[in-house]
Amino acid sequence: MLAKERLSNIFLFALMTLVALAQTASAGRGANFVLYNHHTGPAGKKEIMIMNDLGQDPDGSRYMAQMLMLEFAVTNKWENAFMIEGQSTVGEEGYNFTGFRMESHYRLFEYGATLNPMLYLEYEDLGEDTKYLMEVSGRTDAAEKHKPRPRERVVETRIIVGQDIGETMTLSANWITESDLDRQSRLSAMRWA
Questions:
Q1: Engineering a disulfide at 162: which of 37, 76, 132, 142 sits with its beta carbon 3.0 to 4.6 angstroms away?
Q2: Domain limits, the chain
Q3: CA-based angle 79:85:88, to the nearest 5?
Q4: pLDDT digits over 55-96, tens only?
């Protein structure tokens, strides 16, 4: 036990030394895709989640952005969520409400069906000062952002296919289509894991 504790202390000291000597720390701010699986909560399940995004704008200003999500399982196969977003930037006054999102997903079959499909729909209405990074579309951190419009309204649909492999693993694929309501443009992509 003493040798294990000593090894743990050496590892902790080495880690702290590396952190202290580092000139620049960097976190993964590259492409960020949200991949969903076919699982839903039991009917009546309620969930509240607060998600944080701490970052730095290209001009060096640091910001703190949050998204508050309220989710409710209507049935064993259908869930709805409502999210509000806000942010505060160092040097600017106050905390700004920047937009909202609504999503709904419905699993077509009971668990056990092969490649169990789920339908997903999301609507987002975000202001130009939105900084919460939920996924990569529309976001270019580390580059100047240019939003020529005050709001961004997007509808996202997904066909999600999932398969449980044993009790600890799930195979999932998402066919994603985003439609920009203002620009009347559409993007599609496939993600799997």
A1: 37
A2: 36-192
A3: 160
A4: 888 888 999 999 999 999 999 999 999 999 999 999 888 899
A 10 A CB-CB count for 11 gives 10
**Could you tell me which residues are beta bridge partners of residue 189?**
176
pLDDT digits (tens, 9 = 90+) for 181-190: 888 888 777 7
Cβ contacts of 53-60, under 8 Å, gap ≥ 24: 53/131, 53/132, 53/133, 55/29, 55/131, 55/133, 55/141, 57/89, 57/131, 58/142, 58/143, 58/144, 58/145
22 Cβ partners below 8 Å, 6+ apart?
Answer: none
Condensed to tens digits (0 to 9), the pLDDT of residues 25-49 reads 544 444 445 788 899 999 999 999 9
Single pTM value for the model: 0.73
Question: Whats the size of the chain, residue-wise?
Answer: 193
